[in-house]
Design brief:
Distance between the termini: 29 Å
Oligomer: single chain
Strand order of the largest sheet: 3-4-6-5-7
Structural class: alpha/beta
Helix content: 10-25%
Radius of gyration: 15 Å
Length: 170
Amino acid sequence: MSMYGKRAQGKSLSGHQSAVSKSDTWLTSPDWISALGPFDLDPCCPPNMLWDTAGKMIGKDTDGLSVQWMGRVWLNPPFGREAATWLRRMAHHNDGIALIPARTETAMFYESVWGRADSVCFVRGRPNFYRADGTRAAFNSGAPIVLVGYGKRNTDALVKSGLGFVAKSA
């Protein structure tokens, strides 16, 4: 549930707003996890995660792409170029919810969301994430966020969560 990788100088999550923090690690609200969960696996959990995101949480010290995924997966991949690899793996696993930027025109969306996912939740507003120390960031994500559901139970969880408008595949 974090963003690893390079951060644009002086920018936040997706490079659209100035950030007070110098961290590249941003945690999803525990309220979102409660509303959407429980999850069996979080394959890219940040180090020293302060709340449970799943029954099994794999940190950066282990390559979450190389392990076997099981059950219902929570995926908040590193934003940036790495996200496409993680989302491709989620589409193949086909059971979970991924949090990604709402860049619906990108190759990543066409490869792993459009025609593959069962639903897309267009999140209401721009969420505030949490810093690695557990404090809520004062600034928002700086860009629209979507939650992508793979599998019927994940679509049902997105609808029930009330986090935004859920578009379902045909």
